[in-house]
Amino acid sequence: MLAPSQPPATRLVRRVLLVSPNAAQRRIFSIQLRRAHYEVMEAGSVADALQLCQRNEPDIVLSDWSIPGRAGMESGLDLCRAFRAGERRNYGYFVLLTSAQDEVDVAQGLEAGANDFLAKPVTTQDLLVRLAAGERILRVEEDLRASNAQLRTALDRLRDTQAAIDRDLAEARKLQQGLVKQRSGRFGPVQLSLLLRPAGHIGGDLVGFFPIGEDRVGIYALDVSGHGVTAALLTAQLSVHLSGSADQNVALRAAQTGTDAVSPAALAHFFNNMMLEEMATDTYYTMIYGDLNHVTGRLRMVQAGHPHPFLQRADGSVRPLGNGGMPIGVFEKPIFDEIDVTLQPGDRLLICSDGITEATSPAGRLLGDDGVEAILRTNAFLGGHVFLESMAWSVSEYCRGERQDDMSAVLIEYLAPAETVPLPRR
């Protein structure tokens, strides 16, 4: 007599629940399944079967279609529905035994949650083949569950990492906002107002000003290509080069030209050489840098790929200035545009980034120069930060809140002298 074969070492022993009012049938199936190395449980009624399901959670249920019982539970269909409705840690495979299969039986069984059907009389080969098919389904489900668990673990780690990144970016945003130490300044009759509003946590725009001497002030607006950390790091470095400290501010280094300050065009060329020679990066930026004499109103600017500044005269007329120029950090011998304009009392000049001029409506239309001019005319009676906030609101409304780029601006106002209003005589 041959010894019974042993189950493969890697095979998981499945737990099978046999449900039938026929004890002899259960006995036959039980012997066959144990020989095939299944762990077998038996139940003669639906109630007993449900108790075993709750206590032991069988992997496979093999149930008769007809199971006389009580409390309205009279068939394998009722057991199948209750089996599917119960809480389980793992998926269970359910097979119904029928005397004769027809389309109505199959439809009812599938609707109740059955996976497979076996017609009586059942041969050992048919039984083991169907259970083998059920094992394949269970293995697939287990693999999916394991993969989902790994994905959930990975997702939790990603959430934790993202939360840490968000905290760091929130702190970086505070630091970047701190680069603009003054949001406004008054130099004689000239009022300067700044707007800096990143599209995300951190951005690549930078605006600011610094005194050059008793009668002059340097004004700058930068827009680094791209977004995120790379752009923010470059703006931080540029802010050092344009800070108020004379030993760090390249515009104030007398050694550059032997004068008290570097000219706007010379500063643009200095930055271009620095980008090409010292920084191994594909990043570039646009810039407008101006040297304003707030006594005479003369403003000398260099335009390096930045959107056109807009000059609004005291009579309300608006015109863009400059021909564009090339961005900084792209060409070895760039051509920058130099602008020389004199502001008169009541005039103002707006420098804004492409986050404003290239703001896009839901229909895909750019705000453009015409849109900025319209904002200037519509808000001619507003000044300073009130005007900048009104402009920012108009841009956001134009985009319907879907702003994709950083928004920055410098507003230079040559304030008209206050008029003397004579008091009426009594």
Automatic annotation (TrEMBL):
Coiled-coil stretches noted in the UniProt entry, renumbered to this chain: 141-175
Gene3D superfamilies referenced in this protein's UniProt entry, alphabetically: 3.40.50.2300, PPM-type phosphatase domain (3.60.40.10)
Alphabetized UniProt keyword annotations: Coiled coil, Hydrolase, Phosphoprotein
SMART domains the record matches: PP2C_SIG, REC
SUPFAM superfamilies, per database record: CheY-like, PP2C-like
Span of domain Response regulatory: 15-135
Modification 4-aspartylphosphate occurs at: D64
Protein name from the UniProt record: Fused response regulator/phosphatase
Organism: Paracoccus aerius
